[in-house]
Amino acid sequence: MATATRQEVLGLYRSIFRLARKWQATSGQMEDTIKEKQYILNEARTLFRKNKNLTDTDLIKQCIDECTARIEIGLHYKIPYPRPIHLPPMGLTPLRGRGLRSQEKLRKLSKPVYLRSHDEVS
Fold first, then answer.
1. How far is CA 55 from the centre of its chain?
2. What is the domain partition of the chain in residue ranges?
3. Which value, to the nearest 10 degrees, does the dihedral of the CA atoms of residues 107, 111, 117, 120 take?
4. pTM for the structure as a whole
5. Please, are residues 71 and 16 in contact by the beta-carbon 8 Å criterion?
6. Its family (predicted)?
7. Residue 2 exposed, middle or buried by CB count within 10 Å (0-12, 13-18, 19+)
8. What is the DSSP string of 81-115?
9. Across all residues in the chain, what is the average pLDDT?
10. pLDDT for position 24
11. Hey, what's the torsion of the CAs at 75, 39, 121, 56, to 10 degrees?
12. Among candidates 60, 58, 70, 50, which has minimal Cα distance to 115?
């Protein structure tokens, strides 16, 4: 991993922990705040440990983009959990004569960047 990329990843890791330290639940209740802080910390640790051995620069950039998107979305919507997408089953336009496999492929391609690793960890 290049030094610049390493510094960027470590900076993101530190910023997530700072964010968790200052996090306040929108409900204002202490137990919700504690749960959400714990979720942020556990999610960060799990994903960073899972991806610590990546060497491909494109994959590392994708992970960095996902991390920054999840931070920005969490701050904007005031929720630490990934924002779900709602696609009806078989709701994407199929290619001529193809059924379920093409729908699964289209669903995978239409998944937002901030949800790429959510299904793998959950």
1. 19
2. 1-86
3. -20
4. 0.75
5. yes
6. Belongs to the complex I LYR family.
7. exposed
8. SPPP----TT-SPPPTT--HHHHHHHHHHTS-GGG
9. 83
10. 95
11. 50
12. 70
How many Å from the N-terminal Cα to the C-terminal Cα in the chain? 27
Summarize the confidence of residues 15-37 as an average pLDDT: 95
DSSP-based three-state secondary structure for 51? coil
Task: Enter the tokens of residue 92.
Answer: 């994407």
Tokens 């336009």: give the residue: 93
**Region 78-96 average pLDDT:** 68
For residue 122, pLDDT beyond 60: no
| One-letter identity of residue 53 | N
